[in-house]
């Protein structure tokens, strides 16, 4: 679930900081081995996706030293309105990178998470269980109840974070086909 938290928080932050400064300090490459492994990581994404990850990394790297630290994460969560993030939670997020969280490690982490998700068809089929009429929508309130009461229960805050990037119509219905696309491909909303 921490991976999901990373993804949701990054999506939220990207939307809030789209118009922020695009200036980002980049650290020097640490070794030839990192350069070789990074070439595989960079080939996993389109150039536009890499640019979005760079922007997100730059927004999270509060002190602009090229490494995301626990303090950088804490300050980012504060900017997002999450004031009571526990140090243990932040440390767990950083442990996912298995080393200093530079941009290459950050990109690798998301590459693993995105490649580790179920295929879009599998996710769609799971949603269809909650949509017996085949409308392409599920009720937001019913879905929230399920998320908070079944299996790996979400907290109210986690549900709120997820809904921030979820396409919901005025009647309170989730367009789960669009949500599945966001889960498997990322949020590709065009800037106006």
TrEMBL record:
<keyword id="KW-0677">Repeat</keyword>
<dbReference type="Pfam" id="PF13833">
    <property type="entry name" value="EF-hand_8"/>
</dbReference>
<dbReference type="GO" id="GO:0005509">
    <property type="term" value="F:calcium ion binding"/>
</dbReference>
<feature type="domain" description="EF-hand">
    <location>
        <begin position="48"/>
        <end position="83"/>
    </location>
</feature>
<dbReference type="InterPro" id="IPR018247">
    <property type="entry name" value="EF_Hand_1_Ca_BS"/>
</dbReference>
<dbReference type="InterPro" id="IPR050403">
    <property type="entry name" value="Myosin_RLC"/>
</dbReference>
<dbReference type="InterPro" id="IPR011992">
    <property type="entry name" value="EF-hand-dom_pair"/>
</dbReference>
<dbReference type="InterPro" id="IPR002048">
    <property type="entry name" value="EF_hand_dom"/>
</dbReference>
<feature type="domain" description="EF-hand">
    <location>
        <begin position="118"/>
        <end position="153"/>
    </location>
</feature>
<keyword id="KW-0479">Metal-binding</keyword>
<keyword id="KW-0106">Calcium</keyword>
<protein>
    <recommendedName>
        <fullName>EF-hand domain-containing protein</fullName>
    </recommendedName>
</protein>
<feature type="region of interest" description="Disordered">
    <location>
        <begin position="21"/>
        <end position="40"/>
    </location>
</feature>
